[in-house]
Specification:
mainly alpha, 4 helices, rod-shaped
Amino acid sequence: MKRFNPWLAEKITSGVATMWCAYLFAGIALISLPKALQSGDSIVIVSWIAQTFLQLVLLSIIMVGQKVQSASVEQKIDETHTASLAEFELAKESRRNNALELAELKEISKEIQTLIAEVEKKLPR
């Protein structure tokens, strides 16, 4: 049961969150429209619109819209993640280059110190 309920809920949600389901619900709602209009009662007609048509059809349409928006947000998150990883790799490469440059500068500094020491030895005192 622990796996079945989530599986079933996901299947139902996936099915209801389609425009085909919205069309089906609109068709089902339209079946009762003639009776609502025949009644001539504005409360029955408004009730049909609000409770029958809008609730049935908008349910699926809203779910489709949420699915589209969710996919858009997920795409932006993926793009941001990819860009962040690329920036991280650039930062790591820059750090490696800086470390190499620092090592070279230290080596040059040692060579300069050695040269200065040699020149100082050759200078008369």
